[in-house]
Design a protein that fits this description.
56% helix
Length: 90
C-alpha cells in the first residue's frame, strides 16, 4: 500500500524504514560511515521516498522473509536499480 501523506504516522514511516534497512542489509548494500551507498543526500532522500511510495509492502515482507541474504533486490523493489548501481560502485 502506498503511504499517502495524510495517512503517514511515525509508526508507519518507521515500518517502511525497517523494510528499507532490511532490504539494504539483505542485498549487501552497506550503509553508514565508509559505505559507498548512498553517496549523497539526494540518494538517501530518493530511497526513503521510493519506499514510502511503494505499493508492494506485503510482497517486500514476504521476499525478505525468504531471502535473508540475496545478490540483488527483487524487481518489484522501487530501489532495485539504485541498490544495484551503488553495489557496483562499492
Amino acid at each position: 500500500m502506498v503511504l499517502q501523506f495524510s495517512e503517514m504516522t511515525i509508526e508507519r514511516f518507521e515500518d517502511r524504514m525497517r523494510l528499507r534497512r532490511r532490504m539494504l542489509q539483505s542485498t549487501g548494500a552497506a550503509l553508514g560511515e565508509g559505505s559507498a551507498w548512498p553517496t549523497t543526500e539526494q540518494d538517501i532522500r530518493a530511497s526513503v521516498q521510493n519506499c514510502c511510495a511503494c505499493d508492494s509492502e506485503a510482497d517486500c515482507k514476504a521476499w525478505l522473509a525468504r531471502h535473508p541474504v540475496a545478490d540483488e533486490p527483487p524487481t518489484f523493489c522501487k530501489n532495485h536499480d539504485t541498490i544495484l548501481r551503488h553495489k557496483k560502485a562499492f
